[in-house]
Structure prediction request, 275 residues.
Amino acid sequence: MPTLPSFDCYSALEVSKNATESDIHKAYKRLALVHHPDKNPDDEGATARFQQVNTAYATLKDVGLRRRYNSSTSTSSSTAPSAPFPNQSTGPSFWGFESDDGDDGDDNDSYSTFAGHFDFMFFDDLLFRLFYLGVPRSCSEADKQRDTNELFAKRVRVEKVARDTEAKARQEEKVALKKAKDELKMKERELREAANRAHHESEWARIGVTTQAEKQTSCFHAEFWTKEKQTKKVKCGKCGQKRSMLAFKCQICALSVCQLCRDTFAEERKKLTTK
Prediction:
């Protein structure tokens, strides 16, 4: 048998002792919205008041519990059974399992009383809880599970951000390293080209080469050639053939040749450097 509350349920719901079921239900809806913990996050006493309102409502909405509560709170001078509540008969209780005089009551009356209470109280209360109140976090296993899921999802998001940040840092480091290598490679290439050009200039001065044609004939040519895209096929300065619209120009003597002759010069240069 449920334990009756020690506080004044009527005061908790702000209704009189003669309040009808409808009055109690309306008062519960209003006070539950006012004292709901989610609507009072900074009020430490909101949860206690909300639970008290729920307890009072659970006691007064049930016919049998309300009789017991009224009997327990009545004075010693009024020990007789309490009068019927407004809009309530002295017959079966909410569930139709007991009557005020101890008789089982008529089955049809029990069923009709149960159905009337069930239709009004159960569904109205259920819809109110679902769509207006929800269940306070401290009392609901579903909300505890939801909080756990939210914490897990938050941890997953944090870990994903950390992984993405780490991957981005690795990618940026990789790009920076490649850029540094390319810059070093380009600087070494420029140094080799400058040394190669200085060597040719020194040799040409020593043997008295002055014209462009003489320089192109005696040049060992550059290690790296400049690509030049033309609008039409160009004549190769070495073999005299018009092979392609792409020409390769020596950065030392300015000779423009086809790709085949450029490859031939590269092979000859390789043989000379390996001797």
